[in-house]
Amino acid sequence: MIARILAVFHARNLEFVRDRGTLSWNIMFPVIVLFGLNFVFSTGERNQFKIGILTDNEVVNEIDHPFMDIRYINKIQIVDQDAGLESVRRHKLDMLVDLDDPVVRYWINEESPTGYIVEKILLQSSTDEFIKGVVQGKNIRYVEWLLPGVLGMNLMFGCLFGVGYVIVRYRKSGFLKRLKATPLRAIEFIIAQVLSRLILAISMAIFIYVGASFILETRMEGSYFTLLLVGILGATSLISLGLLIASRVSSEELAGGLLNLMTWPMMVLSGVFFSLEGSPQWIQTFANIFPLTHTLTAARAVMIDGATILEISYELSVLVATSIIFMIAGALLFKWQSD
């Protein structure tokens, strides 16, 4: 028995080592993730809070106030007070501060735990007089901002891995090779896979949303139909992306690596758990290449702001366009059998 186990163990190791693509990817991927995260989030020191400084001075750090010398706080120039207050309300900023007036004014979202901490830091930074303000309108709880991100993350993993691994397994087992002998075309097979996974993904998202809304009593300012449309288009784009990634891959390990290459940047840059407010502009622009970014932007606009289909037409158009591009590219590159 031990001999048989060792034989299988040895054979699997040889299979893995001889698969140069998978071996190279398993070595490269952790390094890519490590350096990528370090590059995105390292600015000499880890900033724990994001503070909007209401000023016309382009060099924010030159403002003379003891609060500006406190480390681990990212100070972001805000020119428009209304825009800054909206960012505080939506948890994109922890606080908005006006240091130009003789009496320092600041605004926080009373539903923000980080805003509470930064307020204490501000009040202890100086003996000056402070005037506290609270963002106007109904405050957005962090859980209400987070819920679309959690739903989107679950949708992303279900769509990408739920399709990618299945296609690779079909190809590796020879099932796709047998399908090739039938009149079925690649685009027809891909459409069938998209529809199947779409029904499952949306059903799971609805189940999670209903349960979370009931337990947490989260708000829903917009139309449920509009939110469902966002979910369907977002899921279709992600499923199509998963099919594109798996269109020519025969190794499950390599497929997993490529899928992780897509999921991790989306987890970090698409606004699942936190906003990119204050990060370099090119990073915010780069994040727009991901379908999940547009899905979450549209979903939050519907759930929190009550946006209509017309108001999120740009995000919906991007999701439709990416779905078509990914699906056509996947069909053209699709390989029925492994090499």
Helix content: 55-70%
What is the number of helical segments per DSSP (H or I, 4+ residues)? 12
- The assigned structural class equals alpha/beta
Q: Which runs of at least 5 residues are low in confidence (pLDDT < 50)?
A: none
Range of strand content: 5-15%
Spatial order of the strands forming the largest sheet = 2-1-3-4-5
Q: What's the total count of β strands? A: 5
Termini, distance in Å?
33 Å
Main β-sheet description: 5 strands, mixed
How do the SSEs run, as a string of H and E? Answer: HHEEHEEHEHHHHHHHH
The overall number of domains is 3
Q: Quick one: overall form?
A: elongated
Mean pLDDT: 78
Architecture overview:
By secondary structure, this protein is of the alpha/beta class. The chain folds into three domains: 2-41; 49-134, D-Maltodextrin-Binding Protein, domain 2 (3-Layer(aba) Sandwich); 142-333, no CATH class. Helices cover 63% and strands 8% of the residues. It has twelve helices and five strands. It has helices spanning 2-18, 20-41, 81-89, 113-125, 142-173, 175-180, 186-216, 224-245, 252-269, 281-287, 291-305, 313-333, and strands at residues 49-54, 73-78, 95-98, 104-108, 130-134. A five-stranded mixed sheet has the order 2-1-3-4-5, with helices on both faces. Strand 4, helix 4 and strand 5 (130-134) form a beta-alpha-beta unit. The two termini are 33 Å apart.
Question: Which terms summarize this structure?
Answer:
339 residues; alpha/beta; D-Maltodextrin-Binding Protein, domain 2; 3 domains; five-stranded mixed beta sheet; 12 helices; elongated
